[in-house]
Amino acid sequence: MKVNFDIKDNQAIEIEGRHIDLHNNFDFVGFDYKIAEREIIIHWKKSSGEWVDKNEFSSLVLTHKDVTYLKVIEQDENSTYEDDCCLDVMSFFPSTAREINDSIVPQSRPNEGDDILYFFENGQRIRINCKQIELTVCKLPILSTL
């Protein structure tokens, strides 16, 4: 898997020296699965919390290309919106251990054959295997909802 970012502290990503805290500063909006293109796009928007730097990116997208595996583990049915949109941790994890969906590996870059796992505060997990993940950021305000 090729990526254009590093995972930092399992809650943030770094691109070109810029630290992006997904846990505290961004809300998970959702994902689109383009089956014919084998592409999954995960959308994030800047949180409205007063702790978020005014110069933080307004939104970002993680595009997973050439997807070969997707597993979504359901959320807790009693979760709140705040839990639904909050990333807990993320991790690259060996695809040979797909029966393990409750652990993380503290590594910044993927090894050959790794999946990526996204854990949310509501208990939901998204596990993806693909050939490439590309992070793109937007500095402009979001004009419409996804």
Question: Which secondary structure elements does this structure contain, and how are they paired or packed?
Answer:
Layout: E1 2-3, E2 6-8, E3 12-15, E4 18-21, H1 22-25, E5 26-34, E6 39-46, E7 59-65, E8 69-73, H2 81-84, E9 87-94, E10 114-120, E11 125-129, E12 132-138
Parallel strand pairs: 1-12
Antiparallel strand pairs: 2-3, 3-4, 5-6, 6-7, 7-12, 8-11, 9-10, 10-11
Structure description:
- It is a single chain.
- This protein has 146 residues and is mainly beta.
- The protein has one domain.
- It is 5% helix and 47% strand.
- It is built from two helices and twelve strands; from the N terminus they run E-E-E-E-H-E-E-E-E-H-E-E-E-E.
- It has helices at residues 22-25, 81-84, and strands at 2-3, 6-8, 12-15, 18-21, 26-34, 39-46, 59-65, 69-73, 87-94, 114-120, 125-129, 132-138.
- The strands form three sheets. The chain has a five-stranded mixed sheet. A four-stranded antiparallel sheet has the order 8-11-10-9.
- Strand 2 (6-8) and strand 3 (12-15) form a beta hairpin.
- It is globular, with a radius of gyration of 15 Å.
- 23% of the residues are buried.
- The model has no long low-confidence stretch (mean pLDDT 92).
